[in-house]
Specification:
The protein has 233 residues and is α/β, with parallel strands linked by helices. Helices cover 35% and strands 14% of the residues. Strands 1-5-4-2-3 form a 5-stranded parallel beta sheet, with helices on both faces. Strands 6-9-8-7 form a 4-stranded parallel beta sheet, sandwiched between helices.
Length: 233
């Protein structure tokens, strides 16, 4: 297994984890290394392990694109498509050498706080961290302590993920037609169904605020797509 060559974790990694958010996950659960193994590996690398509360405290800065903090999702693209932390950039760890050149073009300062992971004790984020450290990045955090981000907040999807949600019967909310969410909230949709909010990319901060409102109203499977609604219908 190619992951083992990076961390040499004392457990067998049976397969790459499919770990999308509730309502968007399509793959079976795969056994993970014990949390203490991942936490020890992070400590051995000299990397701080953070939890969901820490990441949520950074979300306003991420959404505002303050330049002080950045988030990377190390999972395969198919999982990233179906749900990721808002603003997260995807670098699948097994394809790091291929994907890194595009990331490098973003010109993220090497001392920017970058956290990687979704709140699971999965080695993929540590593999990315190791490779980023080798590229000179100095302020990396491992988001490998729970709870899983998607258990506490809304998530963002790509066009592929949005199309899949619609195909699976998600409640679709066009923020252009219902910016204040009055129509949606008055409809009394079932709260156990996934809700997909769609708004123009240039209005991403407003879209995130709407997603936070819907999630706060009890719709725990809330997702947002920043883009043209025509691209997903």
């Amino acid at each position: 297994m190619k992951h083992a060559k990076y961390l040499l974790l004392p457990v067998a990694i049976l397969a790459v984890l499919g770990s999308g958010p509730a309502g968007a996950q399509s793959e079976p659960s795969i056994p993970l290394p014990p949390a203490e193994v991942i936490l020890k590996a992070a400590a051995d690398m000299g990397v701080e392990a953070v939890d969901s509360s820490y990441v949520l405290s950074k979300l306003p800065e991420l959404i505002a694109k303050s330049g002080k903090v950045f988030v990377i999702d190390a999972r395969p693209a198919r999982n990233y498509d179906e749900g990721h932390i808002p603003t997260a950039y995807n670098i699948y760890d097994a394809k790091f050498p291929i994907l890194y050149p595009e990331f490098e073009k973003l010109n993220i300062p090497k001392d920017t706080e970058i956290f990687l992971g979704i709140g699971r004790p999965c080695p993929m984020s540590l593999n990315d961290i190791k490779q980023l450290k080798e590229k000179g990045y100095t302020n990396l955090k491992a988001f490998v302590k729970g709870p899983v981000f998607f258990e506490r907040n809304y998530s963002e999807v790509t066009a592929k993920g949005a199309k899949k949600l619609i195909g699976n019967g998600a409640v679709l909310v066009n923020l252009k037609d219902d910016p204040a969410l009055d129509k949606f909230l008055a409809a009394n949709a079932e709260k156990d169904k996934p809700v997909l909010l769609v708004g123009d990319k240039v209005s991403a901060p407003t879209n995130y605020a709407a997603a936070a409102k819907v999630h706060g109203a009890g719709f725990k499977r809330t997702l947002v797509f920043n883009g043209d609604i025509a691209a997903i219908q």
